[in-house]
Amino acid sequence: MFHRIKSILFFMLLSGALTFSVVYWGEVLLGENTTQTVTTESSEQLEHDILFFLESKLVKKETIKGYVIETYQEYEVYKDALGNVVKSIPTSNYQYLRYKN
Questions:
Q1: Transmembrane ranges (predicted)?
Q2: What digits encode the pLDDT tens for the residues 43-87?
Q3: Ramachandran area for residue 62 (φ above 0: left; ψ -120 to 50: alpha; else beta)
């Protein structure tokens, strides 16, 4: 019983360390984050934070052979500190959802 608990704790520690390593090296080597803060200057020379995140938007919905197929496209969405969308850029990533009508 003690050996099983010890094995489970070791696995949890190892998976946590692996997750941390992947996130850390992904950010360091690729320079990618899901949320980034970008600083811009307005006409009054004030700094505003712009938040970046990914969002899927429904672009097409069709029915084929009794199935509804929804097509979603991923967008890069930039918002200011007040939550207003500054710009929205479509990416080349698509996701498909199929369900019985």
A1: 7-26
A2: 443 445 788 889 999 999 999 999 999 999 999 999 888 888 999
A3: beta
Q: Is the pLDDT of residue 25 over 60?
A: no
Q: Which amino acid is at 7?
A: S
At 1, the amino acid letter reads M
Rounded to an integer, what distance in angstroms lies between the CA atom of residue 12 and that of residue 47? 42
Q: 101, 67 in Cβ contact below 8 A?
A: yes
End-to-end C-alpha distance for the chain, whole angstroms: 50
How far is residue 28 from each of residues 31, 32, 34, 72, measured CA to CA in Å? 5, 8, 13, 30
Name the residue ranges covered by the structural domains of the chain. 1-32, 34-101
Residues 58 and 9: their CA atoms lie apart, in Å, by 43
Q: Average pLDDT of 3-24? A: 61
**Secondary structure of residue 29 in the 3-state scheme:** helix
